[in-house]
């Protein structure tokens, strides 16, 4: 789909874009205090706060509702900070437009549902308010892409992406695993869309916020969305991941913005290193091709003798040996596992084609 996308926020040279504010607007006092403290940092581009909170189970704090929009209006009047909040229904959009909210965002639980996205898109039609779109809860790039397309088709041209990580059933130190490759793929599909990292939802805790924000800047994200609360421990939602404006200010100080690419002088050295990488890649592909030819021969052997393609004991042995060899060369266990799984599947596919002939 041909798109003419514009920036949601205009960057200040030399620093990344910053969206910050409490997870939820709780009281007028809490919102105003947070906004005033953040405004003092002089680095915040947009003040965020949840007014309607989609909670997993009923009974948790579900947001103050419409009343909170007036507090955001006051934030803008008294601090000059532009404001943003989450919308999930047509009525939310109308209320926000009436209250003069500057930017809207679609949450992960909305992006996941095309009916909801379409309802919001229809309500947006005829307006030109910028919209940020969080990734869906599950790692389905199509849903994220679909949400962008629905909002764009409604006539919105200032659209951005928020990477908040994905639900994961296994053991992990993240609240929502980042799966950076999904965001990278989204950037590849939509190079003009600004990309923000929601480090609060990826981490779910305070001590890793900085590390994840830096990782995003290393990957050339445009900025971050972080949850900041004047008294994080007392927050009515997501207390564990919120930090004070002061700690947030320190975090911003410590973040290093990266240049998008090398300048002309640096480029010469980079070109030589890239040439060497191309050579190694070409060798690796040649070796993989050779490996698959051997798998084909084993496939012929098995076809002639009616032997199963999968040989679990042999594969276990290969995995164990390769993990050790990989470690010696500085390759992580995680990388070795996914590399070997891909090789094994390709080998099985090759042999399947032969034994099924
Ligand atoms: O050794 C075999 O029997 C093979 O088929 C080769 C191979 C491999 O690619 O290394 C592929 C499938 C088996 O599960 C185990 C190993």
- Specify the helix fraction band: 40-55%
Strand content: 5-15%
Assembly form of the protein: single chain
Query: Largest sheet, if any?
Result: 8 strands, parallel, barrel
Instruction: Indicate the structural class.
Output: alpha/beta
What's the gyration radius in Å?
A: 24 Å
- Which topology of the largest domain does CATH recognise? TIM Barrel
Number of strands: 8
Poorly predicted residue ranges: none
**Number of DSSP helical runs:** 13
What would the principal axes of the Cα set say about the shape? elongated
CATH class division of the largest domain: Alpha Beta
CATH architecture of the largest domain: Alpha-Beta Barrel
CATH H-level superfamily of the largest domain = Aldolase class I
Keywords: Transferase
EC number: 5.4.99.5
GO molecular function: chorismate mutase activity; transferase activity
Protein name: chorismate mutase
Task: Describe how the helices and strands are arranged.
Blueprint: E1 17-21, H1 28-41, E2 46-48, H2 67-79, E3 83-86, H3 90-99, E4 103-106, H4 108-111, H5 114-124, E5 131-134, H6 141-153, E6 159-163, H7 180-189, E7 194-197, H8 199-203, H9 209-218, E8 223-227, H10 245-254, H11 264-305, H12 312-328, H13 333-355
Parallel strand pairs: 1-2, 1-8, 2-3, 3-4, 4-5, 5-6, 6-7, 7-8
What does this structure look like?
This protein has two domains: 17-254, Aldolase class I (TIM Barrel, Alpha-Beta Barrel); 264-355, Chorismate Mutase Domain, subunit A. It has an eight-stranded parallel β-barrel, surrounded by five helices. The model has no long low-confidence stretch (mean pLDDT 97). The protein is built from 13 helices and eight strands. Helix content is 51%, strand content 10%. By secondary structure, the protein is an alpha/beta fold. The structure holds prephenic acid (PRE). Prephenic acid is lined by residues 295, 298, 310-311, 314-315, 318, 344, 347-348, 351. It holds the Pfam family DAHP_synth_1. GO terms for molecular function: chorismate mutase activity; transferase activity.
